[in-house]
């Protein structure tokens, strides 16, 4: 196999002591960046980019991509411990990860999250190794109608499973959409819903909203019950890691599904954040324990983490093969390639063999290094939970405030965080679900612009969403997903023995 | 819910429900108004800027009404408690300092406010000694400073104190 | 905010008196480099590149820190610099959104609220089509678009009512053809849409599409600069940037380049401006910078002082006229 030879060549490039040192440094920095909410992989890579000027390009990309792997791993940590997503793609991890921590199963949740991240990455890198050109051409199939159908799929995977007052679900989701619409409208370049306030022109950032709604909201709820986080402080020992690993194979179906979703979303490129939501939504609909999702199911951590890491990893593929960034981090790496004098694109594989295969080899090694770093640190992270509430609560507020600020370097966002914290507290107590609001905030803008781009292309003809097998297939699948509860209920009725015939 | 005998209801769920529904309704109405100004029709080449927000706002109004009406009908009968005075007090104990902290970030920078916030919180809620509170507070601030300002080169909001030491 | 500003001013004044009038001004703390665009875009690349070059060649004692403030089509970044009057440790890199954003959105800022420092380069625009399409020259392409009828051909570009759409409208005015303009978020995405044949043409910057050109997926038809690009090294097997005709000589009388320039807050003393002009002259002299310019086929015009101010003033009038004709001005 030609690829295997090239890969071994790549390993020999990547496995110099200097490169391994950079890899470990990158992963560690990445984990720190991942833990800090607001500070994302893209910031981390951008900050260190200028340092790489004096390095050979291969070493440079190994260090920078390792930061990215570290950030992909690290995002889950604060999501699980404090309900504060460290990265956008770990929002869905909070849904089941935080309840697990409340039940004293933080170690299990983190082990599950890290391991599934690793599995997702591994699958994505293997595909990268063997069929890169094939899957890269897949990305070219995606125009605006296809993107819209993917967003529709993500929404429909979430809708219809929520319990509770339907008015509250709708209100929550629509408030999310409305907030997402504030700011510049990319299709017409007009300012929307800013009512003349220049403070509003950059709109509402979903990460700030999430830090407030989930993180600060949770602190307010905990305070109400007294000075403690409930259920925290359970001990962790190496046995938990092994026990969790023994449990994980049970979720093989979810794992495979999440890998497919993740790789697919990474390539087209839809990004790791929508991938994690889609994967969680699909798992909840498809799993036998779907109804219990949200109450601390390990499967509910496996699904988003696998997909996020698979998507984050495969997002590098369209970047290298086509020069389109699959994620904000990939966008910065792309800038890096240009600065180092490399041209991303179809010829990179031919002209810069050492660089490309060195990178691919480092993707295997970097993720292994990442897994080792975060797994050894699990007891350390769990120990954070033993810090008394009067110390940890203000520290979380401080970290959240820094996070909210660093998202857009805007002081107003610190205020927004406090306001969203109060909204999160009140909404949670009144039974408004927060997940639909967050989902709408994340995807609302992208979904709307891809819809309107499609309308521009088709001159206002809605049939564009069924114009070829690809877009038609995904649109059809979303409608199927939307109706899945009814369909599965129907199937269940068929399966149960019918009352004795007349 | 466990309620100590001295704990009174600060607000009934129904009342809060009504207030929130009114707020979301006004928000929806504002969105509808703003979108209508932008143009909310389906133009020659697809929807205009205000098209989606217009209907989103409308849906917010409708669902708020759908929450408001049943709550109004239960206004007399439903006595369930949203928050007791004791709980509200505890929530305020963190919410007010957090708000003060946000003000501090704006005026005296994030590092000094963080140190003060953590230290005071520990002292008055955790009943730790002054020494311990101040040490932890400054440690948090200094580590943040080293991490963001020195290593990552991300400037956070700063105030007169940082300027004095040359940042 | 007011207090902060006064304190900054006095700090600057204090530093200035310490240094004395004889020695030239130098930054006394980290310089913030505002980027009114997101991470990964052309302006972002250039700013981070500058940061790296300054550090690599030790061109300045203090370091430069790039900060992205992309909200509201860059308005956020410009408003921040406008509000930092007298701050000698803040510079901003511009795109055409320096002119287009206030005109299109009515957000209150203007280049006159800032101090012009220097023009680093001008970014070129090239008319691209998919290499599998038969059009070999811009006139062939325009003729085909005309024949297909109004709105049938799609032009993809970055953003709305910004440079790409302005060029599209200028082509329409010059030739009488009518495109459907489809806005996307970034230049890379635009190029991919063209490779995937979801649109018919783009006006990508050279650097955004060069990889696809080299791979034989896209074909450049003409460049919107007044003269051909000077780079004669072969980019593909047979062609160099210099082989691409100007649109004007190929029959589309449209000229447009985008400013990559440096501004800083108003109310800074002249020696501060001089420092930054000298700094960027040094940056431009490095081999790294020259390579970036060649890779991205930039127009390497450099200007500072009055010449630059005049250029910016002229460019503003040009944008106002173009946008007025296109009906892009914000309703007052």
Summarize the structure.
The complex is a heterotrimer of chains A (502), B (167) and C (332). Chain A is mostly helical and 502 residues long. Chain A is 72% helix and 1% strand.
List the helices and strands and how they pair.
The complex is a heterotrimer of chains A (502), B (167) and C (332).
Chain A: H1 2-14, H2 17-35, H3 41-48, H4 57-82, H5 91-102, H6 106-139, H7 144-158, H8 166-181, E1 183-184, E2 191-192, H9 206-224, H10 238-247, H11 252-267, H12 272-286, H13 299-314, H14 316-322, H15 328-339, H16 348-351, H17 353-376, H18 378-384, H19 389-408, H20 412-430, H21 435-458, H22 469-495
Antiparallel strand pairs in A: 1-2
Helix pairs in contact in A: 1-17, 2-4, 2-17, 3-4, 3-15, 4-5, 4-6, 4-13, 4-15, 4-17, 5-6, 5-13, 6-10, 6-11, 6-13, 6-14, 6-17, 7-12, 7-21, 7-22, 8-21, 9-19, 9-20, 11-12, 11-13, 12-13, 19-20
Chain B: E1 9-12, H1 13-38, E2 42-43, E3 46-47, H2 51-73, E4 81-84, H3 85-108, H4 110-125, H5 130-151, H6 160-164
Antiparallel strand pairs in B: 1-4, 2-3
Helix pairs in contact in B: 1-2, 3-4, 4-5
Chain C: H1 2-19, E1 31-35, H2 42-56, E2 64-68, H3 75-83, E3 90-93, H4 97-105, E4 114-123, E5 126-130, H5 138-148, E6 154-158, H6 163-175, E7 180-184, H7 187-195, E8 201-202, H8 206-214, E9 218-223, E10 258-265, H9 270-285, H10 287-295, E11 303-304, H11 305-326
Parallel strand pairs in C: 1-2, 1-3, 6-7, 6-8
Antiparallel strand pairs in C: 3-10, 4-10, 4-11, 5-8, 5-9
Structure description:
The complex is a heterotrimer of chains A (502), B (167) and C (332). Chain A has helices spanning 2-14, 17-35, 41-48, 57-82, 91-102, 106-139, 144-158, 166-181, 206-224, 238-247, 252-267, 272-286, 299-314, 316-322, 328-339, 348-351, 353-376, 378-384, 389-408, 412-430, 435-458, 469-495, and strands spanning 183-184, 191-192. With 502 residues, chain A is mainly α. Chain A has one domain. The longest helix of chain A has 34 residues, at 106-139. Chain A starts with a helix and ends in a 7-residue tail after the last helix. The model of chain A has no long low-confidence stretch (mean pLDDT 86). Chain B contains 6 helices and 4 strands. Chain B has helices at residues 13-38, 51-73, 85-108, 110-125, 130-151, 160-164, and strands spanning 9-12, 42-43, 46-47, 81-84. In chain B, helix 1 packs antiparallel against helix 2 (51-73), helix 3 runs antiparallel to helix 4 and helix 4 (110-125) runs antiparallel to helix 5 (130-151). Mean pLDDT of chain B is 88; it is low at 1-5. Chain C has 2 domains: 2-123 and 258-326, D-Maltodextrin-Binding Protein, domain 2 (3-Layer(aba) Sandwich); 126-243, Periplasmic binding protein-like II (D-Maltodextrin-Binding Protein, domain 2, 3-Layer(aba) Sandwich). The radius of gyration of chain C is 21 Å and the shape is globular. In chain C, 54% of the residues are buried. The interface between A and B is large, with 64 and 66 residues.
């Amino acid at each position: 196999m030609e690829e295997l030879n090239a890969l071994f060549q790549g390993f020999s490039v990547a496995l110099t002591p200097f490169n391994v040192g950079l890899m470990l440094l990158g992963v560690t920095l990445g984990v720190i960046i991942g833990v800090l909410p607001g500070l994302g992989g893209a910031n981390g890579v951008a900050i260190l980019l200028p340092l790489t000027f004096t390095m050979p390009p291969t070493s440079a990309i190994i260090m920078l991509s390792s930061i990215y792997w570290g950030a992909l791993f690290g995002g889950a940590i604060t999501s699980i411990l404090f309900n504060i997503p460290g990265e956008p793609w770990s929002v869905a991890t909070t849904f089941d990860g935080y309840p697990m921590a409340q039940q004293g199963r933080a170690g299990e949740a983190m082990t599950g999250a890290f391991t599934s991240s690793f599995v997702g990455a591994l699958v994505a890198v293997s595909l990268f190794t063997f069929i890169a050109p094939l899957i890269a051409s897949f990305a070219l199939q995606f125009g605006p109608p296809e993107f819209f159908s993917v967003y529709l799929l993500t929404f429909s995977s979430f809708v219809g499973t929520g319990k509770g007052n339907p008015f509250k679900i709708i209100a929550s989701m629509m408030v999310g959409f409305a907030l997402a619409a504030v700011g510049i409208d990319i299709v017409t370049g007009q300012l929307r819903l800013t009512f003349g306030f220049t403070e509003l022109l950059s709109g509402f950032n979903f990460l700030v909203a999430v830090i407030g709604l989930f993180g600060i909201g949770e602190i307010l709820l905990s305070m109400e019950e007294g000075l403690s986080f409930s259920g925290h402080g359970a001990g962790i020992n190496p046995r938990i890691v092994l026990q969790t690993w023994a449990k994980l194979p049970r979720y093989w179906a979810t794992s495979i599904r999440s890998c497919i979703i993740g790789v697919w979303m990474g390539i087209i490129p839809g990004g790791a954040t929508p991938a994690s939501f889609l994967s969680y939504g699909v798992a909840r609909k498809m799993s036998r324990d779907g109804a219990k999702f949200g109450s601390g199911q390990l499967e509910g951590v496996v699904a988003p983490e696998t997909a996020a890491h698979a998507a984050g990893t495969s997002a590098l593929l369209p970047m290298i093969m086509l020069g389109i960034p699959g994620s904000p981090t990939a966008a910065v790496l792309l800038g890096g390639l240009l600065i180092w004098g490399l041209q991303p694109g179809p010829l990179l594989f031919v002209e810069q063999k050492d660089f490309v295969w060195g990178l691919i080899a480092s993707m295997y090694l970097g993720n292994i290094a990442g897994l080792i770093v975060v797994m050894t640190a699990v007891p350390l992270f769990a120990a954070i939970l033993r810090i008394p509430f009067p110390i940890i609560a203000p520290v979380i507020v401080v970290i959240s405030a820094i996070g909210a600020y660093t998202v857009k370097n805007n002081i107003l966002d610190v205020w927004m965080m406090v306001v969203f914290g109060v909204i999160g507290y009140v909404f949670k107590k009144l039974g408004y679900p927060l997940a639909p609001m967050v989902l709408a905030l994340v995807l609302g803008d992208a979904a709307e612009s891809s819809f309107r781009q499609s309308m521009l292309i088709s001159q206002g003809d809605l049939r564009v969403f069924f114009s070829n097998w690809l877009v038609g297939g995904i649109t059809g699948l979303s409608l199927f997903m939307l109706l899945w509860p009814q369909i599965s209920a129907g199937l269940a009725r068929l399966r149960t023995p019918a009352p004795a015939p007349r | 819910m466990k309620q100590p005998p001295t704990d009174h209801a600060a607000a009934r769920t129904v009342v809060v429900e009504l207030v929130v529904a009114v707020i979301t309704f006004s928000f929806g109405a504002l969105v509808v108004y703003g979108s209508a100004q932008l143009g909310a029709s389906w133009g020659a080449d697809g929807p205009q800027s205000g098209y989606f927000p217009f209907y989103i706002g409308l849906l917010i109004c409708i669902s708020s009404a759908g929450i408001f009406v049943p709550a109004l009908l239960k206004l007399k009968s439903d006595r369930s408690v949203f928050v007791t005075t004791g709980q509200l007090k505890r929530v305020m104990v963190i919410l007010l300092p957090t708000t003060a902290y946000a003000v501090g970030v704006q005026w005296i920078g994030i590092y000094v406010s963080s140190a003060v916030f953590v230290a005071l919180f520990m002292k008055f809620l955790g009943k730790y000694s002054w020494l311990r509170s101040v040490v932890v507070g400054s440690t948090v601030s200094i580590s943040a400073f080293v991490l963001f300002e020195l290593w990552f080169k991300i400037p956070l909001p700063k105030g007169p104190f940082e300027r004095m030491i040359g940042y | 905010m007011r207090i902060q500003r006064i304190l900054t001013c006095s700090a600057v004044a204090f530093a200035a008196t310490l240094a004395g009038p004889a020695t030239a001004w130098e930054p006394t703390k980290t310089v913030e480099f505002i980027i009114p665009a997101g991470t990964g875009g052309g302006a972002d690349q250039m700013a981070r590149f500058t940061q790296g070059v300054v550090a690599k060649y030790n061109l300045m004692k203090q370091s430069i820190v790039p900060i992205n403030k992309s909200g509201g089509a860059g308005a956020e970044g410009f408003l921040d610099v406008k509000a930092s009057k007298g701050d000698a440790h803040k510079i901003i890199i511009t795109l055409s959104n320096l002119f287009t954003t206030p005109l299109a959105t009515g957000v209150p800022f203007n280049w006159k609220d800032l101090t012009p420092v220097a023009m680093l380069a001008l970014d070129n625009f090239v008319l691209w089509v998919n290499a599998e399409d038969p059009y070999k020259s811009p006139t062939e392409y325009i003729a085909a678009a005309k024949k297909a009828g109004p709105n049938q051909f799609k032009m993809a570009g970055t953003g709305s009512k910004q440079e790409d759409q302005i060029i599209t409208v200028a082509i329409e005015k010059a030739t009488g053809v009518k495109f459907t303009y489809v806005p996307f978020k970034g230049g890379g995405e635009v190029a991919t849409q063209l490779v995937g044949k979801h649109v018919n043409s783009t006006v990508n910057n050279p650097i955004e599409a060069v990889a696809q050109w080299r791979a034989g997926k896209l074909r450049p038809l003409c460049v919107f600069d007044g003269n051909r690009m000077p780079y004669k090294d072969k980019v593909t097997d047979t062609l160099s940037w210099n082989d691409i005709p100007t649109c004007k000589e190929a029959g589309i009388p449209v000229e447009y380049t985008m400013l990559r320039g440096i501004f800083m807050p108003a109310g800074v003393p002249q020696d501060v401006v001089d420092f930054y002009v000298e700094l960027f002259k040094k940056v431009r002299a490095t081999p790294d910078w020259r390579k970036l310019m060649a890779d991205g086929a930039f127009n390497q015009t450099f200007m500072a002082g009055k010449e630059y101010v005049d250029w910016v003033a002229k460019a503003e009038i040009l944008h106002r006229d173009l946008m007025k004709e296109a009906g892009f001005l914000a309703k007052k």
